[in-house]
Amino acid sequence: MAVEEYRERVKSEKRAAALAAAGRAFLSHGYDRTTLAHVAREAGISTGTLFKHFPTKAALFEGIMEELWEVDPELQRPLPPAGNPTAGLTAIGHDYAGKLRQPDTGPLFRVIIAEAPRFPELGQALFLRGKAPYLNHLHAYLRSEIAAGTMDIHDVPLAARQFLGMINDLIFWPTFLAADQVVDDAEVGRVIDEAVLTLLARYGRPVKDGAARPA
User: Fold this and answer.
1) Gap between the Cα atoms of 87 and 105, Å rounded
2) Top-tier CATH class for 85-203
3) CATH architecture entry for 1-55
4) pLDDT tens for each residue of the chain, 215 residues long
5) Cα radius of gyration rounded to whole Å, the chain
6) Where in the chain is the domain with CATH 1.10.357.10?
7) CA-CA distance, 113 to 172, in Å (whole number)?
8) Most buried of 1, 27, 43, 47 (most Cβ within 10 A)?
């Protein structure tokens, strides 16, 4: 058992080293000019070991997207408890904002925008490996609130995009498009609070304890 645990730990460490090296390479050299041989050398592993984890450069980029969005295809992320959508949506909003504000998020988006015309798989990796699983997680949470009787939503995917869009538009894009723009923690909190208020004004159902609508 100890030997197996050791092997799994080494395997995990080599995978993490490959992703870290690939992230640095993509940001420094772009997607097109990054090679698997360069990534393996920077990660301190053999190309054979790298190929076992990521057989193609596209697979490497997909792995980076999964790590950025903290998506593990083999694990079911826990949902906030249903019954108080103000608290649940606020928690999800802060989690989403945290992902948007990670140091590598903006630079990786620039790589995707710059090279997507020649490498459409980059945009697909962003959506399929990162954003889509995150949206599915939010869909499941909204459906749990519908089942609890606290929200009335006929188009869950639309409502999910509306919620994330209100946060994304005011937190990510200003700093992405203008380097001198600063969105501090207080503003992030205000944006999330307003997004929750707006979504519940549209979809919230009043309940006896008032949990559906924030005061």
Assistant:
1) 26
2) mainly alpha
3) Orthogonal Bundle (1.10)
4) 576 776 778 788 999 999 999 989 988 988 889 999 999 999 999 999 999 999 999 888 888 888 877 755 544 568 899 999 999 999 999 999 998 888 888 888 888 888 888 888 888 877 777 788 789 899 999 999 999 999 999 999 999 999 999 999 999 888 888 877 888 999 999 999 999 999 999 999 976 554 555 43
5) 20
6) 85-203
7) 15
8) 43
